[in-house]
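Possible regression after last week's pipeline update?

I re-ran a chain I had predicted before the update to compare outputs. Posting the input and the new output here so someone can diff against the archived version. Not blocking, just want to make sure nothing changed silently.
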Amino acid sequence: MKHAPDTLPFMKMHGLGNDFVVLDGRAQKIEITPALARAVADRHRGVGFDQLALIEAGQDDTRLTFYNADGSTAGACGNATRCIARFLMDESGATRLRLITERGTLLAEDAGNGLTSVNMGAPQLDWHEIPLAHEMDTLELPIEGSPTATGMGNPHCTFFVADAEAVDLDRFGPVHEHHPLYPQRTNVQVASLIGPDRLRMRVWERGVGITLASGSSSCATAVAAARRGLTGRRVTIELDGGPLEIDWREDGVWMTGATAHVFDGQFTRAWLEAAQ
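New output (post-update):
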């Protein structure tokens, strides 16, 4: 995208309403401070996002770094990874590529019909990998509701409930995000079985709040449901923003769904200076 001098171009993308501001730092060095991330996240004075993503050129593959709306970093962001993978595949004409994240090197593929798949890697099931505060069984935590803990490069706490719609997530989410068993805080999901291998899920995202969708949360919920015998390893997750297909294979947890590149814009130099 062409841009005027002293401005910083950005892209706005979303995966099922899980929305992102994406900065392309492959041709220029971009430094993101927590203050800048929070300013961009402001939906009234900035642009607004669930996550901010920075694309950088790695030694062999493209590198992605993610930031939450509160300025903290996010180790993994599945839907943003799919959105950026789609952008890079459209740009290059490739149908497969690798992306380097804090989670590790992730494989992305064109799934056809406008859908994009990403292998989010093997789930982390041991307490110290997630991480939890001390050793315990991750299948059923000693928390009311007996949630399951899963790591997908970021921590997750999944509650299986009779009706996900009935949970007051605005109150339920923050209490469990900051639960003392999760020293790095956690993403919180409430999920209900609504059919064979089909789950309705709602998400409170660490450092963000309620989101319309979450890729890593969908992967974690699918893994937790399979471990508890509620579903098989291939499931459909119905989120507020639409469906994601999750397939827990031998080589990792694959996530497939739609993406959208909504618009391109530019931050003015004056706004950037004030935001820092």
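Follow-up from reviewer: compared with the archived run. The first helix runs from residue 34 to 41. Marking as no regression found.
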